[in-house]
Amino acid sequence: MEGWIKLHRKLLDWEWYDDINVFRLFIHCVLKANHNENNWRGIKVNRGCFITSYDKLAKELQLTPMKIRTAIKKLIVTNEITIKTTSQFTIIQIVKYSDYQADNKHNNKRITNKQQTDNNQITTNKNDKKDNNEKNDNNITDEFDKFWNLYDKKVGSKEKCLIKFKKLKNEEIEEIFSTLTNYIKSTPDKKFRKNPETYLNNKSWNDEIIDNASALKTDIKNPNSFKQEETKYTSW
Length: 236
Description:
Layout: H1 20-32, E1 38-40, E2 43-45, E3 49-52, H2 54-61, H3 65-77, E4 81-85, E5 90-94, H4 97-101, H5 104-112, H6 114-151, H7 158-166, H8 170-186, H9 196-201, H10 212-221, H11 224-234
Antiparallel strand pairs: 1-2, 3-5, 4-5
Helix pairs in contact: 1-3, 2-3, 6-7, 6-8
């Protein structure tokens, strides 16, 4: 990656300037963002965007994943960035990238053509918004289908689960896919696995995952644990 970025002195007045983790993450995102549109594995990555993951950002900035998540949430709240998450990666977009990195020639041209652009946008924005909503809805449905098949306990109403899934935040969907495999391994017998609707309603991806098989092996290796339990119940 070559080239340079621009930083305006107004950054000193930015509300996150004195939040070290948020400031570091945002500057890192500006540095990583595409200056020009390109493609990655058949996916179009627009100007001002880049593909990454929470774990990758944590390693690059030497911060914990939790600190990365917290910083990203703050940047989303103040509309500095938007994110789109899939089961494989996250696309981060710098919302005002062109404002930050545009040259003077580009700015003058934009001012000259502003009225014409605004008139054109009045006509096109409605269609663009509709298309974007349809694309986002299709992406969420695809992500839900992956969850539904991976969870592999097809009970209850799939439609209700889909409605609940669509209300989740992108970071929650990412957390589901990062923990779901371990949860499934910990409940090989599906009858002990929560119904998918219950799993979503209770946000069970935040629960501690207990490996029942490992716990059983520990008890077998330590037979005294059974004796202790026996003594405990006998004392009653």
